[in-house]
Amino acid sequence: MSITIRQARPEDAAAIYAMIYELAVYEKAPEEVVTTPDEIRETLFGAGSKTEALIGEIAGNIVGYAVFFTSYSTWLGRNGIYMEDLYVSRPIAARARAGHC
Questions:
Q1: For residue 79, is pLDDT > 80?
Q2: CATH superfamily label, 3-97
Q3: Element (H or E) spanning 44, and its range?
Q4: Segment 39-74, tens digit of pLDDT
Q5: Minimal CA–CA distance to 40: which of 17, 65, 67, 23?
């Protein structure tokens, strides 16, 4: 099973939202997700966005995402990356744990 990692695109907003909601259900906090796919499309991919996203695909199907942005460490005096979310769908994660990926 081969996993492809690519830059997220605006048309991925609904899939990203679905995985955000899956994660919230797993964390027993679905009511805390107040965003929408349209809002994700506007804020993640809109002009001036400082946030980036990557998509994981298997056989053309989206199975995960990562959302991150650059940060700055005053103590280290250098730029860094803050990863907000790294999510892999539960069936794929279970297969990986079982050694089937």
A1: yes
A2: Gcn5-related N-acetyltransferase (GNAT) (3.40.630.30)
A3: helix 37-45
A4: 999 999 999 999 999 999 998 999 999 999 999 999
A5: 17
Dist. CA 85–CA 23, nearest whole Å: 10
Query: What are the structural domain ranges in the chain?
Result: 3-97
The whole-angstrom separation of Cα 83 and Cα 54 is 11
- How many angstroms separate the CA atoms of 59 and 41, rounded? 24
Q: How far apart are CA 35 and CA 19, in angstroms?
A: 12
**What is the separation of C-alpha 58 from the centre of its chain, rounded to a whole number of angstroms?**
15
Tokens linked to 21? 């909601």
